[in-house]
TrEMBL record:
GO terms for molecular function: NADP binding; shikimate 3-dehydrogenase (NADP+) activity. Its EC number is 1.1.1.25. Transmembrane segments: none annotated. Residues 16-100 form the Shikimate dehydrogenase substrate binding N-terminal domain. Coiled coil: none annotated. Keywords: Amino-acid biosynthesis, Aromatic amino acid biosynthesis, NADP, Oxidoreductase. One of its GO terms (biological process) is amino acid biosynthetic process. Gene3D superfamilies: Leucine Dehydrogenase, chain A, domain 1, NAD(P)-binding Rossmann-like Domain. It comes from Tatumella ptyseos ATCC 33301. This is shikimate dehydrogenase (NADP(+)). GO terms for cellular component: cytosol. The keyword Oxidoreductase applies.
Length: 274
């Protein structure tokens, strides 16, 4: 992080807004990345804001001329959308926003970079999803963002599995509506004959030892991906590694997404079409 002495009247402010906020890692990680990217006079701070205070906060931030943008944490990622002036197609498709930025005229724009961050993280390991058959466990906002991003990158088939059937159906309908050429298949807990298998559920997070899906139908060499950040090697990834599969952990998505968020907040050329 930049030294406190470097903060001055020229400093631009970014933040992470959520409730609770005590355990978020974003401020420390982003401040380190800002230094690594040699972005001067920019810092990130946490803002602990309850739901009832979000509209008033956003109104105030419109008038804060050195406010550049904010990462939006839960529980605000859905409710923030109604207070923004412009939203990206990703927000329109999912109803979820996880980063906003302020324009010089005070307007606020928002996008969702969960899916783009996942794709960027895959690319760091040389994984190209175009033309691939992909299995995705989960149908929440994170899974939805990843599903739409995968569709936008040219996967040929997307196999969906979620323990709550209604959400899976809603996601399938949204994908078919927004990506007419995509083949969407309703899967089971045991994926087979796919190139990439992804967990986008909380299974395996923290002390949880559950696996979101079975690996028994997957061939050695299949890429098994997990969006869970801690632990880095989840029970799913540990089992995949033992079975000779290739693994991709959630830290790749986190760091790639933070880099995209920094660019969205600070670079005027970063498109609202993301």
């Amino acid at each position: 992080m930049q030294s406190i002495e470097s903060v001055c009247g020229l400093s631009r402010l970014t933040s992470v807004i959520g409730d609770p906020i005590a355990r978020v890692r974003s401020p420390g990680l982003v401040n380190r990345m800002l230094v690594e990217q040699q972005r001067e006079n920019v810092l990130m701070i946490p803002m602990h804001v309850a739901s009832r205070g979000l509209p008033e906060l956003l109104t105030g931030l419109r008038h804060c001329q050195n406010f550049a943008g904010a990462i939006i944490a839960q529980p605000h990622q859905q409710s923030v959308c109604e207070w923004l002036d412009n939203v990206s197609p990703a927000v329109q498709m999912t109803g979820t926003c996880n980063v906003i930025r302020r324009s010089p005229d005070g307007t606020l724009s928002g996008t969702l970079l969960e899916g783009d961050g996942f794709i960027a993280g895959l690319r760091q390991q040389g994984i190209d999803v175009a033309g691939k058959r992909v299995y995705l466990a989960g149908a929440g906002f994170s899974a939805s963002a990843i599903a739409h991003a995968l569709a936008g990158q040219g996967v040929t088939e997307l196999i969906l599995y979620n323990r709550t059937g209604d959400k899976e159906v809603q996601l399938a309908e949204s994908l078919s509506r927004n990506h007419p050429g995509l083949v969407v298949i309703h899967g089971t807990e045991t994926p087979a004959h796919c190139d990439i298998a992804i967990n986008a559920t909380p299974a395996g997070k923290g002390e949880d030892r559950q696996q979101a899906f079975s690996l028994s139908g997957l061939a050695a060499g299949t890429w098994v991906c997990d969006t869970v950040i801690y632990p880095q090697m989840t029970p799913l990834l540990q089992a995949a590694e033992r079975a000779g599969m290739q693994t991709h952990h959630g830290e790749y998505t986190l760091m790639a997404q933070l880099a995209l968020m920094i660019s969205y907040m600070l670079d005027p050329q970063s498109s609202d079409d993301q």
